[in-house]
Specification:
Blueprint lengths: L4 H15 L14 H17 L7 E3 L6 E5 L7 E5 L19 H7 L2 H7 L8 E5 L12 E5 L2 H9 L9 E2 L10 E6 L8 H9 L3 H4 L2 E10 L3 E10 L24
Length: about 260
């Protein structure tokens, strides 16, 4: 039975009410442009004024293809990868262009910042990158969360790794009680694979449909020796209160997972 227009509006209002409680660490959820202001008015401004990156920990100001890395106030080792150009989020059509920067590849190379902060090594399957849907975020500037994977999620994926193939398919288990789909990508890094495009092409999604998706990427070792990645996606379901908040797969306290 389809929802009426009034019911749809109420569901959307409910979604945004829930979002206000999620928050993004370094900023107040009351200002959805706060992340962009930090990058533009502080990190970039300081860089061009005196060569400083503060308060960012890393900065590549390369025109419309650059990115900033910012330590999130939430968690002991969570970092955010943020483009240095204005991009709303996963729904931004620029992300699906042939020449789009691969922000996931940049984020994966930043994972060492998490280990450095923890002062302990992390295997590739102990780190997960996530981006929330347009309905499951508090900020209107694209940002990829870089942090430890939850120990229980790490264990579930390890036990079902052999079932994950080269095409998107539903996982046989739920992650945080949500029905994620998964696919694998082989390789040491993500330089030749852009997860945004793999998601859009795999499900025939346009940018509007991408807004309802969350995307997560974690490292993996297939067959015990082949380096690669597991890509995970879930989608918004207002009727179930699911805002596709992939950040739920991360452990911001970074409790050690079994290596």
């Amino acid at each position: 039975m389809k929802s009426s227009a009034t019911e749809t509006v109420l569901l959307v209002l409910l979604a945004f009410a829930l979002i206000s409680g999620l928050g993004v660490g370094p900023v107040a959820a009351s200002d959805p442009d706060a992340l962009w202001k930090i990058v533009k008015d502080q990190c970039l401004a300081h860089y061009f004024e005196n060569g400083s990156k503060d308060p960012c920990t890393d900065l590549d100001p390369d025109g419309g293809r650059g990115y900033a890395v910012l330590k999130d106030r939430v968690g002991i080792a969570q970092f955010l990868l943020i483009p240095t150009k204005r991009l709303g989020g996963i729904e931004s059509p620029e992300l699906l262009k042939d020449d789009a920067p691969n922000y996931w590849a940049y984020a994966w190379k930043t994972k060492s910042s998490v280990a450095d902060r923890l002062q302990r090594p992390l295997s590739r399957d102990q780190v997960v990158l996530t981006i929330n849907s347009a309905f499951g975020r508090s900020q209107n500037q694209l940002h990829i969360h870089i942090d430890c994977i939850r120990a229980d999620i790490h264990d579930l994926l390890r036990r079902h790794l052999a079932e994950i193939g080269d095409r998107w398919a539903p996982l046989k288990v739920r992650l945080d009680n949500h029905p994620y789909w998964a696919r694998r990508v082989l390789g040491t890094d993500l330089d030749g694979n852009n997860p945004f495009r793999l998601l859009a092409e795999g499900f025939s999604l346009d940018s509007q449909a991408m807004a309802r998706r969350t995307l997560a990427v974690t490292g993996a070792m297939f067959n015990g020796e082949q380096e690669g990645f597991v890509l995970l996606t879930d989608q918004v379901d207002f009727s179930l209160g699911n805002l596709a908040h992939g950040e739920e797969l991360q452990d911001h306290d970074c409790k050690p997972a079994v290596p």
